[in-house]
Amino acid sequence: MSRIVAIVEDEPAIRDNYAEALRRHGYAVQAYAGRAEARAAFALKLPDLVIIDVGLGDEPEGGFDLCRELRARSASLPILFLTARDSDFDVISGLRLGADDYLSKATSLPQLTARIHALFRRLDALTGPAAAREQVFRLRGLTLEVERMRVTWNGAEVALTVTEFWMVHAMVRYPGHVKSREQLMREAQVVVDDATITSHIKRIRRKFQALDPAFDEIETVHGAGYRWRA
């Protein structure tokens, strides 16, 4: 049975373009122009994954409101923002509301489908048998479970997006080794500028520091990249 992906996007041409691309990848697609329409449909049955724009019609923050409502209903529903609003403030707002990822509309369709696939892979790992947790990295307070895509710090779960998880994984696999921005991009399957990589690292640090203000495992190596302390 096909996975159901819902798209909430107020621009008809953009909505149709994404819907057609995802159908070609075998997904069943539900498309909605606004929050009220999507909310009415989701009240009957939640899809398997939701893609949301931030601005919806005459609601500049409609996507954020919808994300908040969906996350209150389901902790595990994959939610992905796909929007032209990609300032650091907007990204952080979306992630704080519980979105799994936040992508710019400049993201290519192959990158978008790869990210959707990664979100479903994480969901399958979380709902699958515990025996699937085959690769685990432990370093001081950190535990990283690859198959479950789960990271904990001193026993508390760190709510990382898919992108952030793979960046942490890239550093933790080889502690003490410097990972360049290009290597981090490759690991996370994203193509972004250096400033965006820096923003991701800042957000990762903040999430660990929210659990442990003394957290200082990620070191910046100026001109080279980042590394997890050896």
What does this protein look like?
With 230 residues, this protein is an alpha/beta fold. The protein folds into two domains: 124 residues, Response regulator (Rossmann fold); 97 residues, Orthogonal Bundle (Arc Repressor Mutant, subunit A). Helices cover 44% and strands 20% of the residues. The strands form three sheets. It has a five-stranded parallel β-sheet, with helices on both faces. The chain has a four-stranded antiparallel β-sheet with strand order 6-7-8-9, covered by helices on one side. α6 crosses α7 and α6 crosses α8. It is globular, with a radius of gyration of 18 Å. This is Proteobacterial dedicated sortase system response regulator. One of its GO terms (cellular component) is protein-DNA complex. One of its GO terms (molecular function) is phosphorelay response regulator activity.
Describe this structure in a few short sentences:
44% of the residues lie in helices and 20% in strands. The chain contains 8 helices and 11 strands. It has a 5-stranded parallel β-sheet with strand order 2-1-3-4-5, with helices on both faces. A 4-stranded antiparallel β-sheet has the order 6-7-8-9, covered by helices on one side.
